[in-house]
Amino acid sequence: MARGTRRPRGVTVKTPEQVQLMRAAGLVVARTLERVVAAVRPGVTTGELDRIAEESIRGEGAVPSFLGYHGFPGSICASVGAQVVHGIPGDRVLAEGELLSVDCGAILAGWHGDAAVTVAVGECAPELLALSAVTEQALWAGIAAVHPGGRLSDVGHAVETVVRPHGYGLLEDYTGHGIGTAMHEPPYVPNLAPDGPGRGMVLDPGIVLAVEPMATLGAPDVAELDDGWTVVTTDGAQAAHWEHTVAVTPDGPWVLTALDGGAGRLGTPVPAA
Predict the structure, then answer these.
(1) How far apart (Å, rounded) are the C-alpha atoms in residues 150 and 271?
(2) What is the topology classification, in CATH, of domain 16-265?
(3) Is the pLDDT of residue 2 over 50?
(4) So what's the pLDDT on residue 116?
(5) Dmax of the chain from CA atoms?
(6) Once rounded to an integer, what is the mean pLDDT over residues 39-52?
(7) Is the Cβ–Cβ distance between 84 and 102 less than 8 Å?
(8) How much is the average pLDDT of 59-64?
(9) Domain ranges in the chain?
């Protein structure tokens, strides 16, 4: 076996039947994010969005992944403006011109789905819309690299290749991850590849990853607030965060948290599990 291709300890390979179960959890997340996004507007609180998410998840017979996770108090992470990730939902009132990242997870039949979207609150400046669009484009570039026989560093290389030319800050210490019966499993899925593509473990069918690039309009430097969760940019620049759960199948990537399985963005039919 070539150097660097061995799977890290704890990486799980799912059967096709288990991937189908993860797809069901992923659809709960996808539909929940649709409902939350539809409610985003100036004047709404992040706590109201959290209530919508919890009702949606439980209404589908699932359980919020985030609620109570290491003490986290919400069913979604709602990160506004300069908050990058892990924002705690509450009485924060959304204001015109802000970007809002909504990160959502659900457990169904013991399996997790995890995805995030960035939403413009009302009318946003063109540079903020561009930041979100490029970050989403980077997500899909990373997803396209999740194919059988590929390597883990291919994902970060694809993300970095999209983001870097725009001069945005790309977070290095917050990464994607494996996912399955636990929300966070090995391996880490970095959003950059300093040593280039073609390195790291081989992406075999049955491996499921959460790919999640985070980019900022300024520097990539961040700090965690005293609440022990919320991560903010140190220069106050706004940020964008996009995420999907994607399975490696023999036919290519299957986006478990996209309603269409990713076919629309990848330009290919949904693979068979």
Answers:
(1) 16
(2) Creatine Amidinohydrolase (3.90.230)
(3) no
(4) 98
(5) 56
(6) 98
(7) no
(8) 98
(9) 16-265
